[in-house]
Amino acid sequence: MADRDMQNAGRRVSPDLRPSNGTRYSQLANVLREKIYSKEWAPHTLIPSEHMLMKDFGLSRGTVRRAIKVLVDEGLLVQRHGKGTFVAEPGITHAAGVHPISFAESLHEQGMDFVTNVLDKRIESAPAEIAEALEIEPGSDVMFMRRVRTVAGEPVICQESWSNLLECPGLFEEDYTQATLFDAVEKHSKRKIQYSRIRYSARIAGKEHGTLLGCDEAAAVLLLEQTIYLMDGTPIEWSHTWLKPGQSVVGSSVSRD
Fold it and tell me: Which among 118, 116, 117, 135 has a CA at the least distance from the CA of 126?
């Protein structure tokens, strides 16, 4: 493993633990989990030491160790004797076809009326992991967007996407409460979306996504990581789709001759 992949997170975690927010170890686990989910801590990142976490949050060693164990059990962290605790690599990838999944189209096909709520839309500098996925230089402009789709007033899907603005000038100006991101990409890139690579992972919702999806923070949810490619092979979007418990993804496979 390259040394640069095992660098310490380099910043302290801002304390945000309140007595009314559950047990102290579960609060700390929530804070650390969101650092991983938000990509602030990339795979192979060496997280702050137990001593640093104890000092930053005013917690006992036993509480810190219990919080870390929760995330180790979830597969988000891995401990290496004599080296520290690291953000784990992504889980095993299972092939599930190459056609991009459009959740708006899926809901339409099932006859479900839905509302798209855009919670966040901004232009930001691409961190290293996003830049690698989109094959652009780190620091390039990307559009980050977080949307929650509701059916009958209940949230069912939370989508977080990073889009390549170099290939899609004008993408930011669209109204995504009405337009789909797929349609907007094809409009502004002047190219068709061709295929995608998808990774499926089982995850604990965590406090933030549990709130967005209206489920318990300890609920198991399905996370789909999808990289979308245009017809010329240009990666145009990297997205995370969080599915509320009770939903599923169905695909087909064909055996080789």
Answer: 135
Helix axes 24-37, 61-73, angle to 10 degrees: 50
In the chain, which ranges are continuous DSSP H helix? 24-37, 50-57, 61-73, 103-109, 128-134, 181-189, 206-213
Strands 141-151 and 114-125: antiparallel
Dist. CA 181–CA 185, nearest whole Å: 6
Highest-confidence segment of 2-11, 36-45, 141-150: 141-150
- What is d(CA 98, CA 195) in angstroms, rounded to the nearest whole number? 5
Asked if residue 67 lies in contact with residue 207, where contact means CB atoms within 8 angstroms, the answer is no
For residue range 188-226, what is the model confidence (pLDDT) as tens digits?
Answer: 999 999 999 888 888 999 999 999 999 988 888 999 999
Q: 3-class DSSP state for residue 167?
A: coil
The answer to whether 209 and 242 have CB atoms below 8 angstroms apart is: yes
